[in-house]
Amino acid sequence: MLSVKDLHATIGGKEILRGIDLEVRAGEVHAIMGPNGSGKSTLSMVLAGNPAYTVTHGSATFQGKDLLAMAPDVRSHEGLFLGFQYPVEIPGVSMVNFMRAAVNEKRKYFNEPPMSATEFLKLMREKRAIVELDSKLASRSVNEGFSGGEKKRNEIFQMAVLNPVLSILDETDSGLDVDALRIVAEGVNKLRTPENATIVITHYQRLLDYIKPQIIHVLYKGRIIKTAGPELALEIEHNGFDKIIREAENEENL
């Protein structure tokens, strides 16, 4: 599904990604962990097509197509979704209009007729229930006046409506209390199928108690320095990243 090879990227002339190799297959859940400044959010932004970042070397293919050659909206239409660490507010734009426009743009991309208002409202009701999103929130401007937990629920609600093939969740657990974390994680789990995949970017094991990844990667100084199974997250929880970083520095002189 996603194949990233020797990916290098900069922002403002500073190299952040220094050779990322990553393979994600349908049905898989990957977690990317690492200390602050490792390049985790940069990787998500580069894959989503944020124009502030410049790819200087390497490749990324998504479902057999050149991801890096696609405009950000095309990446979204093709099935890539990014859940933001800090979702933005869009005053004056209702959730209903925002999401209906997004859905119908995707349908237009695939030469499908637009969804009627009645059909879309039915879809919204179905998907809203997945993350227990209050109907009043769904009727308001996008994220305006929402709490941190409500914004993150809204991200997963948008993910449910758009039905992406690959979801990248950038520190979805940031700022969530226990109840909000559970609801958001349960929403992610309900949306998992053998045909889609998820990349979860996080600092902490606590999110991974709910969203169970098969594969854990540790990112440090713009490179993936270790990949293993779920036991790696427990090792990090108990010992931190220091031991893994020291081992990598000894082996590769990072």
What is the first-to-last residue Cα distance? Answer: 29 Å
Please provide the count of β strands: 12
The assigned structural class equals alpha/beta
Helix content: 25-40%
SSE string, helices as H and strands as E:
EEEHEEHEEHHHEHEHEHEEHH
- Major sheet attributes: 6 strands, mixed
Strand order of the largest sheet: 6-9-10-3-11-12
| Assembly level | single chain
Strand-residue proportion: 25-35%
Mean pLDDT: 88
Instruction: Estimate the global geometry from the Cα principal axes.
Output: globular
Tell me the Rg in angstroms.
Answer: 18 Å
Helix-strand layout with pairing:
Blueprint: E1 2-11, E2 14-24, E3 29-33, H1 40-48, E4 53-62, E5 65-66, H2 72-78, E6 80-83, E7 90-94, H3 95-109, H4 117-128, H5 135-139, E8 141-142, H6 148-162, E9 166-170, H7 178-190, E10 197-201, H8 205-208, E11 215-220, E12 223-228, H9 231-239, H10 242-252
Parallel strand pairs: 3-10, 3-11, 6-9, 9-10
Antiparallel strand pairs: 1-2, 1-4, 4-5, 7-8, 11-12
Helix pairs in contact: 2-3, 4-6, 6-7
